[in-house]
Design brief:
Chain lengths: ~500, ~575
């Protein structure tokens, strides 16, 4: 799932380049140390044997070449992996923006409180960083371990087999550590969700809580959930620490095995210089293996991010949940959706909106989004080429002519009152002049006189548009024009067990 | 924050004036002091862990010496067991010390985290009514992600300086004991290490600066477009939006790459310095071992054990400095989090406890004199020199168009909001929420059982009292509809109850609170007529023996009041 999403965004060739460069860089870092150790030991060996045929020039040249290539490879690898990250982010974001655009409006709007933004920024970069943060280190660790094991196997099959075993054990330890943290990670996430829910709930109820003198109990409930999350995090860290210590000890075991097997036997075919080189190679290999407990959680995070992104990536043609709603409205008619609270008026409207292609209809929801810009700029989102006179006209239509067009509405329209926000959203919808206009409780937050005036003006400004309006029963007298059809929703059982 | 974003942030900090950066660093250091002893200990332990590396290197050298002797003499197998034991002991010591250091760092960081979380929580839910403050989501984010954003900085970066001084010192001393010449080489190489990610090549600095500016602008625009996406989709402009986004994103990637190409040169330089030093040490030791080196003043004799010892310790000498240089990621993330956190902690003032009015207290009069309130960022006052006199026990309904200032008036009358000018009095005292039972729009329930929710108003109430309160308001039907009675769970934001049922519970709670002044802000805004009828009935019962202020649009509630006051543009008309 994670990789599938990534594959859509990263060119395979770029990914391969990045992985190859990372592996080559780590391999040259490991061999630099190994060759240096081997070189020193060989020098000593040559001196005590008085071997005059051995030339020091090539090995010491190799050391310098490795030093240079490690630097160059690292530089290239970092550039390539960041380039892959940036490209993947851009491609992924473009794909998901299209996916988000195809979501039913209600679901899209349900995401608007920062959720969509954090998915398209944080989650996208988390998935995009997967090659650099996870795949490259994994590949370089695997390649280094494989090459080192291969070299040892070539020198002495028993030694190779023993080291392979220890490497496999280390890999298994890393994976097991990761698995063991999963439960605590889930527990922590659950508690964090509780904290969030309770905090948002308490913030909404703050005047009531202050008057009840119940802020402290509310706070201590949240603090208790925080404490539970904290304990879960501690559990995760404890497991990770144990895992890293185990990996370090396995590294010690690997090195001692080389020393014992390669040096301790009279029958050994290996020279002491090869044995020392091998120990240093193993040491370098385990330096990479030690990092595995850090890398695997990054994979877990990327997977979680990819799961959150999945709804944006796979958009069904119609909302999969619930029964389909079919509806026909003649141009210029008005249909009223009625029913008591909780009978599903809003749900019906969003189902209708979800079935149509955007452009055929406009849905004005109870709390519509406003850009953090001026009134005029908000209107121009609907009609980019509208003349200032036209803007003034629609503003007058919704009784907002007391607000200057260059008035900045603030984040989420915060500088306007609820009723003003609703009327501005309505004005925007009027500029669209859609064939079908869905209005969800357009009168909430408006006093009755204004509501009547605005609804009448909007209806007469859009003579050919079919209106579908959801209104609570008591507000029906606010419609100053005849209603052509009614959809009566009967009350469903509103009490459900949580 | 990704690695790339962190790098760009770090470069921007270095090339900019850095005043913000200094402020956030100051803040971070002050917070870190909460966990200082543990973080210090973590640094010490990490530095001491290099002792393990020294022992390991000595064991390795010893093993090589023994192997060499055995191979040279072609005698019995080399007995490397003791040497291998030293190698293993060194690595084990390192593992133990590092684990202890990690534990100390985690404890210190946890201490800082809980202190900061407590402060954010106090600011998010102040015991006194807040003025201004952040959005609800910002507080939730601060509690969770922002505080966690300090983790790497606390556990890795902060102890790193101490670990470097101690660790590199230990390694250098060990090397100097065996070969003063190699130690000298290392000391000479040290000043060449750049302290941070300074962009090398002053000629490119201006170009990098320009690119960084463009990167910031593009990033801001990108975020803005993403925020507006749902609207753009609703308006049918999604194709243009997607294309514009892609264009900006690719331009951002291109410019960021240009910046990084230069930035990575400095890390490459660090790499080159370390590997180059290693190559020089290896060559020097090799030539000495071969007995080829004859230079005046340079030692020309060395055992294999010594040579291997100094060679393997050379990377260990540089390792802590490299860790420190890599800390830009932790630093940039923490600096970003620190700014947001500081905002989220503003307003976390020490608070006095409200002393709730005694139950059954006599109704209070409410007086507003010349009360004015201007909300931040607005030119027109929400309340404009309002005069209000409500007699004790009177029921006053405030009505008016949306945005007229009804909610603000109620908040001031309840003592939740201190007016910018003028005064608000309950009887002869200053207005205080301690006298008030509040019913908001929509009425609000915390997750938990119905019983827990009601007991918020009166913690000592038993079930008999709670049931009596239902009866008193005529809500016996509601109680019968709850599947588990008082034990019925209420989910997030009252989920599981209809809005009418939720509002009825809030009324029961207000009754239990039994305060002399009752303030209701649009209590029926989301109710259908049946539910509204039930609430209106209960309201008239609640109003007995209390002063009531009710803000509403609903025609059904207007007749309940003794007086109806129309409000418009922050003034009574």
């Amino acid at each position: 799932m994670t990789l599938r999403l990534l594959r859509t965004a990263v060119r395979r060739r770029d990914l391969l380049h990045g992985l190859l460069l990372a592996a080559a860089a780590e391999l040259s870092a490991a061999t630099l140390l190994g060759v240096s150790g081997w070189f020193l030991t060989a020098c000593a060996l040559v001196t005590v044997r008085a071997d005059t045929t051995w030339s020091w020039l090539y090995p010491s040249g190799a050391v310098r070449a490795l030093a240079l290539s490690r630097t160059g490879l690292r530089y290239a690898e970092r550039l390539v992996s960041h380039r892959v990250l940036l490209d993947a982010t851009a491609a992924l974001r473009a794909r998901l923006v299209r996916g988000a655009a195809a979501l039913p409006p209600r679901r899209l709007r349900a995401l608007r409180d920062g959720a969509l933004l954090s998915r398209l920024t944080d989650d996208v970069t988390t998935v995009g960083a997967l090659p650099a943060d996870v795949l490259a280190p994994l590949a370089s660790t695997a390649v280094t371990a494989a090459v080192v094991t291969g070299l040892l196997w070539h020198a002495d099959a028993r030694l190779g087999a023993a080291e392979l075993l220890v490497f496999l054990l280390a890999a298994a330890t890393a994976v097991a550590t990761h698995r063991r943290t999963q439960d605590a990670v889930r527990r922590s996430a659950r508690e964090q969700a509780v904290v969030r829910t309770e905090l948002l709930g308490a913030r909404d109820a703050l005047p009531e809580l202050i008057c009840l003198d119940a802020v402290r109990p509310a706070r201590s409930r949240i603090a208790a959930a925080l404490e539970r999350a904290h304990r879960a995090d501690e559990d995760t860290r404890r497991v990770l620490r144990a895992g890293r210590s185990a990996l370090r000890l396995l590294g010690a075991l690997g090195q001692c095995l080389v020393l014992a097997l390669a040096l301790n036997l009279a029958a050994t075919v290996q020279s002491v210089s090869a044995a020392i080189g091998e120990v240093l190679l193993i040491a370098a290999g385990y330096e990479l293996v030690e990092q595995l407990p850090r890398i695997l959680p990054a994979y877990g995070r990327a997977r979680a991010a990819a799961q959150r992104l999945a709804p944006l990536d796979a958009v069904p043609d119609r909302p999969a949940d619930g029964t389909a709603a079919a509806f026909e409205a003649e141009p210029g008619t008005t249909t009223l959706v009625t029913g008591p609270n909780g009978s599903g008026k809003s749900t019906l409207l969003s189902r209708l909106a979800g079935r149509a292609t955007p452009g055929d209809l406009t849905l004005v929801e109870a709390e519509d989004w406003l850009a953090d810009a001026t009134v005029a700029e908000n209107l121009r989102l609907a009609a980019p080429d509208a003349a200032p006179e036209r803007l003034a006209e629609v503003l007058a239509l919704v009784a907002l002519d007391d607000i200057p067009p260059d008035f900045p509405v603030g984040p989420n329209g915060g500088r306007l009152s609820q009723g003003q926000r609703r009327r501005l959203a309505l004005a925007r919808a009027v500029l669209r002049d859609p064939p079908l206009l869905l209005l969800d409780e357009p009168t909430a937050g408006l006093d009755r006189a204004t509501a009547r005036r605005v609804l009448g003006a909007v209806r007469s400004a859009l003579p050919t548009t079919a209106f579908v309006i959801a209104l609570p029963d008591r507000d029906h007298d606010l419609l100053p024009f005849p209603v052509d059809g009614r959809i009566e929703l009967t009350a469903r059982v509103t009490m459900e067990r949580v | 924050m990704t690695d790339t974003a962190a790098l760009v942030a770090e470069l921007a900090d270095e090339s900019g004036h850095g005043t913000d950066e200094r402020a956030s660093t100051r803040r971070l250091r002050a917070w870190a002091r909460i966990g200082e002893p543990e973080l210090r200990r973590a640094g010490t332990l990490r530095g001491l862990a290099q002792l393990g590396t020294v022992i390991w290197a000595a064991g390795l050298g010893w093993a090589a010496g023994r192997g060499l002797a055995a191979q040279h003499l072609h005698t019995a197998p080399a007995d490397v067991a003791p040497a291998a034991g030293v190698v293993a002991a060194g690595l084990a010591l390192r593992a133990v010390l590092l684990a202890a250091a990690d534990r100390a760092a985690a404890t210190g960081a946890a201490r800082v985290r809980s202190a900061l979380r407590a402060r954010v929580l106090r600011a998010a839910l102040p015991g006194r009514p807040p003025r201004g403050g952040l959005t609800d989501v910002a507080y939730a984010e601060a509690l969770d992600a922002e505080v966690a954003g300090l983790d790497d900085w606390l556990t890795d970066y902060l102890p790193a300086r101490r670990a470097m001084l101690l660790g590199s010192g230990v390694v250098l001393a060990a090397i100097a004991l065996r070969s003063w010449f190699v130690a000298l080489l290392l000391v000479l190489a040290t000043p060449l290490l750049p302290a941070n990610l300074k962009v090398i090549g002053m000629g490119t600095k201006a170009a990098v600066q320009a690119q960084l500016g463009a990167v910031r602008t593009l990033h801001g625009r990108l975020l803005d477009q993403l925020r507006g996406l749902p609207t753009l989709v609703g308006l049918g402009a999604q194709e243009e939006a997607a294309r514009a986004l892609r264009r900006d994103d690719e331009e951002l990637a291109r410019r960021t790459t240009l910046v990084l190409r230069v930035a990575f040169l400095s890390t490459a330089w660090v790499e080159l310095l370390i590997t180059g030093t290693l190559a020089v040490v290896a060559t020097y030791c090799g030539l000495v071992l071969l007995d080829y080196l004859r230079l005046p003043g340079v030692p020309d004799h060395m055992s294999l054990a010594t040579a291997l010892f100094v060679l393997t310790l050379t990377p260990a000498y540089f390792a802590p400095a490299r860790e420190l240089a890599r800390g830009y990621h932790a630093r940039a993330r923490a600096a970003a989090a620190a700014d947001l956190l500081a905002g989220a902690m503003r307003g976390a003032v020490p608070e006095r406890r409200l002393r709730p009015a005694a139950r059954g207290a006599a109704p209070l009069s409410v007086r507003l004199r010349e009360a004015s309130v201007v909300h931040a960022g607005r030119a027109r006052p929400a309340l404009d020199r309002v005069e209000l006199d409500v007699r004790a026990g009177e029921f006053v309904v405030v009505t008016g168009p949306s945005g007229a200032g009804k909610s603000t008036l109620l908040s001031v009358a309840a003592g939740l909001l201190v007016p910018d000018r003028g005064s608000a009095l309950h009887g002869r005292e200053r207005a205080t929420p301690a006298h008030v039972a509040w019913v908001g729009q929509p009425g609000f329930l915390l997750p938990g059982s119905v019983r827990e929710n009601l007991r918020l108003a009166r913690p000592e109430a038993d079930d008999v009292e709670l049931l009596a309160a239902f009866d008193e308001l005529g809500f016996s039907g509601l109680l019968a509809a709850l599947p588990d009675g008082l034990g019925t769970p209420v989910g997030e934001r009252g989920f599981g109850l209809s809005s009418g049922q939720a509002q009825q519970l809030v009324f029961v709670r207000a009754l239990l609170r039994d305060a002399p002044l009752l303030c209701l802000d649009e209590p029926t805004a989301h109710l259908d007529p049946d539910a509204e009828g039930a609430v209106a009935d209960a309201l008239s019962r609640l109003a007995r023996h209390r002063t009531v202020l009710l803000a509403t649009h609903s025609p059904a509630l207007l007749p309940l009041g003794d007086r109806v006051l129309p409000l418009d543009q922050g003034r009574f008309v």
